[in-house]
Amino acid sequence: MDDCIFCKIIRGEIPADKLYEDEHAIVIRDINPQAPFHFLAIPRKHYPGVHDIPPPLMGEVFGGVMNAYCKALEACGLVQNGYRLVANSGEIAGQTVPHLHIHVLGGRELSWPPG
User: Is the pTM of this model over 0.85?
Assistant: First the structure.
């Protein structure tokens, strides 16, 4: 999508603090962190939400995103102490960028329920 901020970051048109990237996904620091470690794992291909991924590609898209955030988790040392994954879908759920992405939060105790 031409006007999607994440697509612009992926294309290199907008700078971002990248923690990891490969052919399937990128991981960037959130510009409004809600925890000491707050980053976003974003598939390179634009899908507004999980429900928009064609079923035959679901494993490839999520596998790529999961691999990317696992690499960032290891680099930040979050695997040992725990972390939270969040995927918002739709405006009412808090999704502000309509490009599928997974929030990864850690570095402090996280309360429940969130929001």
Answer: yes
Nearest residue to 39 (alpha-carbon basis) of 110, 101, 108, 115:
101
- Which position among 38, 51, 99, 101 bears the catalytic label? 101
Q: For the residues of 73-108, what is the DSSP string, one character each? A: HHHHT-TTT-EEEE---SGGGT--SSS--EEEEESS
Query: Is 103 an active-site residue?
Result: no
On whether the CB atoms of residues 37 and 106 are closer than 8 A, the answer is yes
Reduced to 3 states, what is the DSSP secondary structure of residue 65?
Answer: helix
Residues of the chain where predicted confidence (pLDDT) is lower than 70 = 115
